[in-house]
Backbone:
């Protein structure tokens, strides 16, 4: 019995390592794709409709939305969210305005209301000055039954609370007797 328990723990640890590697690889791919767009002078020079069309190519099953912010943090092109959306850029603005790519912790998106990881890449003028950021929100609500805490090879720590887990945990909480 003890050996089976240990084997199950080892299998679980292997599965977590594999899941972390897959997530890490996926995030690296998204950062690379986002950086290509952020550094594309044709994208940056295009009109809003053309930029929104290009951003729509970044949105898919696991990508909730993508948007372009100008240097004031205003949405100027988007896919998956209205251009009138109010974006809380505070978590990533310091990094992107300093010319760094940003990836954040799992949080509830202020735009979509869903668990997501935000990645952002700075945009620059031909002269190299900061002009804004291209942002993607990656869905963190993929697994319907668990909470994940993963540290990836690159050192990212991911804590994912799925909506199904939150709902089941909420249902399991004892009733407040004061109600």
Residues:
């Amino acid at each position: 019995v003890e050996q089976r328990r240990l084997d199950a723990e080892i299998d679980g640890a292997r599965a977590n390592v594999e899941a972390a590697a897959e997530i890490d690889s996926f995030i690296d791919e998204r950062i690379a794709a986002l950086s290509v767009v952020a550094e594309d002078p044709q994208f940056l020079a295009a009109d809003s409709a053309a930029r929104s069309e290009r951003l729509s190519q970044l949105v898919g099953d696991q990508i909730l939305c993508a948007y372009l912010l100008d240097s004031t943090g205003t949405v100027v092109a988007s896919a998956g969210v209205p251009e009138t959306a109010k974006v809380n850029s505070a978590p990533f603005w310091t990094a992107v305005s300093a010319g760094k790519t940003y990836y954040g912790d799992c949080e509830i998106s202020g735009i979509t209301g869903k668990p997501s990881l935000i990645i952002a890449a700075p945009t620059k003028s031909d002269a190299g000055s900061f002009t804004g950021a291209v942002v993607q929100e990656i869905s963190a609500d993929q697994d319907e039954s668990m909470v994940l805490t993963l540290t990836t090879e690159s050192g990212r720590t991911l804590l994912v609370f799925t909506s199904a887990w939150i709902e089941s945990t909420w249902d399991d909480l004892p009733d407040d007797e004061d109600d």
Remarks:
- The mean pLDDT is 78.
- Strands lie at 63-70, 75-79, 102-103, 107-108, 115-124, 130-139, 147-151, 157-161.
- The first strand starts at residue 63 and ends at 70.
- The longest helix spans residues 2-38.
